[in-house]
Every structure is written in structure tokens, then in C-alpha cells.
Amino acid sequence: MQHNITHLALGDLLKLIRGWYPDQDFPVDPRTLLKTPRNVVTEEIAGGTFYYFGVARKILETDLDFRKKTSTLASFTGYQNLVILSIGIDGLPISKSSNLQFWPILGLIDQAVNSNPFPIAIYYGESKPNSIQDYLKSFVEEMSTLETEGLLKNNIQLNVRIRCIIADAPARSFIKSVKNHNAYYGCERCYCRGFWSRRVLYGNDLYDAYNDNTFRRQVYSKHHEGESPLANLKLGLISQIPLDYMHLVCLGVMKKLLLTWTFGKQKLSPSCIHEISKKMIACKYYVTNEFARKPRSLKDLRLSKPPNSVCSFCI
Prior knowledge:
- The protein is of the alpha+beta class.
- It has helices spanning 7-20, 30-33, 56-61, 132-149, 169-176, 212-216, 245-263, 270-283; strands at residues 43-45, 48-52, 82-89, 92-93, 101-109, 118-125, 151-153, 156-166, 195-196, 200-201.
């Protein structure tokens, strides 16, 4: 597991070991060695298949270090033995030949000695879940219990809180039950009505800003499409669900500027574009492995994801 040995390679290793030690009862199949469950009980919800792993189970299995302080939120002060979770939700296509996809709920324990993401739940279907209530029901119920009662581990009472929920624009509008980012009232930070100019755009005027209180009370009703199950948690649905930098800036504003400079009416000269591309490609050899996407030439600019519509005031 530590070195990501595939089942195919592990099967060949087991054959070698059985040949070296014929008198030992080594298993033939990797699934026997790893004690893979034969049957997994799943639920049919929201138009797909759903399995819930749980949060408390992972916290009990994880070595914790409470000296790690990774959050400065005022609502977390005064707690002893506080376990802080970062939650990630997004869709994940599994094939180019079908619409089948995963919608996992992932968690990250800030106080973990070896902090790695872990699955909380996985949804599998041909589209995103058709009911946010069913999709988040198990997660919200368990987190409500953990926030109220805590968790006992090694005779230590733990307090559990969510630091933030990380998602891109479509996933945020889905889990918050609000209008999509390309709707007239789709801005997630202020009560700004967009206008149509071949697509929905937002102006530069100042509008009333949303806060956690007004969002829960749905004061600005045109922004909402229903009530999110996350409202039942001790979670700021504005302050603790941040806008994602990658889509709004890197694939949004910055990409629009690059497209203008490269393919616009007043674009840069070909020699200048070539020089910039050459320097960007030279930089990729110095980018560490933590960055999955390396710099590419400006001629590949159109191949990246399209930008999202955002309110420029809220950036």
C-alpha cells in the first residue's frame, strides 16, 4: 500500500513467494492477502449508487498532533483537543465513452501527523446526484452529532469542526442550493444582478454583500434555489466556503487577459508571443512535482478549461 503496488504486480509477487516457500500457506490472490470485502452494501439514492465511509472512523484511526494550529477562525478559539476538517466535493468522470462519474466527499484532518485526504462518501451515477438532500444526508447527520457530542478517543474528548468546504463553482452552487455561476443572480458574494451580453456578465457597481446570517435567513431570495442541508451544521456558508482561486483567477480573469493578448484584435507581435512561450516552457523544468500542470506554450491556451462568469467587484 505504501508503494502503490498494483494488484497485477502483487499477484506475480505472490507466485514467486509461493515458489520460494512452498510449505507456507501464502495466498494466491491479492484480494485474499488484502482481505478485500467480498460484498459491499451500497445505497440507491439520488439516481445513483452511494456508499458512506464515515468521518468518526477515520479520526479514530488517525494519529493526531494537537500542536498543529492550521486555522485562525475566531469561532474555533477556546476549544480543547480540537480536530479540524477540510472537506472537498467535486465531480469526477471515470470514462470518456460514457457519462458515468464519481461524486466523492473527501476529508482532510488538519491535526493528522501524516495528513492525507480520505474518502467520506462516494456517489456513482450517470450525472451528479439529483437530490442534494439525499446526497449530504449521512454526512450532515454524522457531523451534527460530532459537533454536538464530540468524539472519545483514548479517553480524550475530541471536539470536531469543519474549517472549510472546497469546491469549484458548479459544485458550490449545488451544495449551497443557490443559482449557478452563470445565472443573473449567480454571484456568491453580493446581491448583484447580471446582464446579458452574449453571456451573463456583472458590472462594477457596489451591491449588498452576503454574510452567513443573511444567507441562512435567505434574505436575498433570488439567489437561492432551496435550503441546503449544510445549514444544519455549525458552518458559515459564506465565510467557510471560499471561492476557488484556480477557476476564478487562473482560468478566469488571467486566461481572458492571455486570450486577448494572444488572439485578440490588439494582440502582441508573433515574436513577442514566441519569446513568452519559450520562457514559459523553460520554466516547467523547475516546477516541483506538487504542481500537476506544468507551464505550456501560449499556442495551447485554448485547450484549457473555459473561464467562469464572476462579479468583478467580488474578486
